[in-house]
Design goal:
alpha+beta
């Protein structure tokens, strides 16, 4: 295996839990809310969602396990905020895939035009 291929495999391994966590509508809404409103408690995050605080807690744990959010104690509450490092890595991985896709499309176009 070439060094570049090993680096790509490492990125794939790291990307899988992030994309798995993003594959849920409630989790995406939570990330969207945190990106707009900043750090929030579970109580605030569950307001107006129709989802129980217990379910919100489970979703936040899944996002935390994927490295997408982190929590901190503020007084009597625990607040959650985005951890942008993992999101940036996921974005970089998608950019890499997009670049590969563009190159493949260009090769196909060149092949078809040469026929």
């Amino acid at each position: 295996m070439s060094p570049s291929r090993g680096a790509a495999a490492w990125k794939e391994t790291e990307a899988v839990p992030v994309f798995a966590a993003l594959g849920d509508a409630t989790r995406l809404r939570l990330l969207g809310r945190l990106s707009v409103d900043g750090p929030l408690s579970i109580t605030r995050l569950s307001e107006g969602t129709g989802v129980t605080r217990q379910a919100i807690t489970r979703h936040l744990h899944a996002l935390g396990d994927a490295g997408l959010v982190r929590d901190a104690r503020r007084g009597r509450e625990r607040v959650y905020e985005l951890d942008l490092k993992r999101l940036e890595k996921a974005r970089g991985y998608l950019d890499q895939i997009a670049t590969q896709w563009d190159a493949a499309a260009h090769r196909l176009k060149t092949f078809v035009e040469d026929q």
